[in-house]
Structure formats: C-alpha cells, structure tokens
Amino acid sequence: MTALASTLADTLRNDKSLTAGATLVAVFILMAFVSLVWTPHDVAAIDADARLAAPSLTHPFGANHLGRDVLSMIMVGARTSITVALFAVGIGMCIGIPLGLLAAGTRGVIEDIVMRMSDVVFAFPAIILAILISAVYGPGAVNAVIAIGVFNIPVFARLTRGSALPIWTRGYVMSAKTAGKNRFRISLEHILPNIAPTLIVQATVQFSLAVLAEAALSYVGLGAQPPAPSWGRMLAESQTMVSFAPWLAIFPGLAIFLFVFGLNLLGDGLRLRFDPHRIVGAM
After folding, report:
1. What SS3 state is found at 68?
2. Does the bond joining 227 to the residue before it have cis omega, within 30 degrees of 0?
3. Total-model pTM
C-alpha cells in the first residue's frame, strides 16, 4: 500500500510537472508565433523620446538605450532562440540517431569509428566550435545552429547506441532475425520505436541546453547579429546599465530562465511518464 501510495503521489507530481512545463513552453512558442505578425512596437524602430523608459502602459517591459521596446524584442528573441534550438537539435537527432542505430546494429569496426568520432566532437564544446566557425565564416545565427547542432550529434549517437544494445538481445528481435529481416528493417521497426521515449526526453533536455547555448553565443557576439533581437545580446547590452535601468537585464534574463525551466519541467515529466520502473515498483 505504501508503494502504491508513493507511486500515486509520484504520478500526481509528474502530471503537475508535465502540465506546468508544457504550459510555460507553449506560452513562449505562442509568443514566437505571434511575433511573426504582430509586436507592440516595431523592434527596429529607434525612439529617442523613449530612451531608457521605465516599464509603463506604453512600454510594459520598458525601453532600451535606443528607445526600442523591450517586450517586442523579447517576443522576437523567443523566435530566434526557438528557431536556433529547433534546427540545432534537429541536426543532432537526424545525424546522431542513425549513427547510433548503425553502431548498435553492426558493432565491430563501424561501432568503434562512430564512438571515436563522438569522442573527438565532445572534445570541442559548442562555444569553441562557434568560435572556430566564426573565425572562418563570421558570426551569425546559422553558424550558431551548426556549432550547437554538431555538438548534439554525439549526444544522440551515444544515447541511441546505449539504449539500442540491450534491445538487440530481446526475444522478438531474435524472432525478427529468424524471419529473415535485415538489420536495417529491425532497427526501424523494432529498435527505434522502443527507444523513442528515451530520445524524446533527451530532445527536451538538449533543446533547453541549445537555448542556453544560443543565449551564451549571442552574449559574446557570435549568435544572431543586429538588428535581429536576441535574449543573450540583450543581456550583454544591459550589463553597463543595470544600476539605473535594471529592467533591461531582468526581463530577458527572466525569459531565458522561465523558458529553460519550462523545458526542464517538461523533460522531467516526460521522463517520469515513460519510466516503466515506476509501474513495476508499485506492484
């Protein structure tokens, strides 16, 4: 009874975490979509009369040193962060998952090559890759996507391989081999569907890390370039004005915190929802 009550409590907590995380993430996604067609003010407009304006009805989050509306910039900045993170995680999944399935399905030399390549990429964090790419091609959102995406490839490759290896020993996989299915079909029809929940949870984690990486790259000038708003660059521009215009740092910082917090809650809720040991432990 105690185990069952504990599991029920965990489920309730899980549902709250899942709901809260999904709500926060949905708010920012909606904000990004709305910014495509409407913002309270033109984000590129410079209004000398509104320079460093405090939060008010006209500028709910205040205005920066150029008179640009902070709320409008945060809305468009959400679009920038989500776009960069989405493409970066997409690159990691589209390349890393097939590599992981290949390594788990073939083993031997191919597995060793994939894993050693992953080790090499892991030796260069996203910020270092971005600096190297920027040194050759210049800074920009596209280069930030490439740098973060390349760093995500070994993450998904290792996770896919590690999750797939135990499944290759299952009875139904052995039956599929006996039935004449090749390794490619087995990977697609039996392995991938069984490890998909783990990959989905990891994708939410990597998405939150990609948002932080994009903000960090923009902070040091390697991300989205002006006049495109970016949360990280908004923080960088506000650091010399915190003493007399704190809202310039508070609101973009709060946006980063809430979005990443929501993604982490969502990932934690999904992890608990997909965890089969919770059900087994209650029996």
Report:
1. coil
2. yes
3. 0.88
Which CATH number does the domain housing residue 161 bear?
A: 1.10.3720.10
Q: How far apart are CA 137 and CA 155, in angstroms?
A: 25
Structural domain harbouring 147: 2-32+63-282
Distance CA 54, CA 60 (A): 8
Q: Which two tokens stand for residue 63?
A: 């205005």
Q: Read off the tokens for 141.
A: 């959102």
Q: Where are the alpha helices (DSSP H) in the chain?
A: 2-37, 70-106, 108-122, 126-137, 141-167, 171-178, 183-186, 192-219, 231-238, 247-274, 276-282
Query: What token pair was written down for 196?
Result: 């998909």
Tokens 């949905």 belong to residue = 26
Short-list 202, 270, 255, CA closest to 28: 255
- Count of domains in the chain? 1
Tell whether 161 is covered by a domain: yes
- What tens-digit pLDDT sequence spans the chain (283 residues)? 455 445 545 544 557 888 899 999 999 999 999 999 999 999 988 888 899 999 999 999 999 999 999 999 999 999 999 999 999 999 999 999 999 999 998 888 888 888 888 888 877 777 788 778 877 888 889 989 999 999 899 999 999 999 999 999 888 888 888 888 888 889 988 999 999 999 999 999 999 999 999 999 999 888 888 888 999 999 999 998 999 999 999 999 999 999 999 999 999 888 888 765 544 333 3
Residues β-bridged to residue 69: 63
What's the rounded Cα separation, in Å, for the pair 25 and 78? 11
Residue 196 lies in a domain: yes
* Amino acid in position 263: L
Residue 279's nearest CA partner among 2, 4, 1 is 4
Q: Which residue has the tokens 């989205």?
A: 224
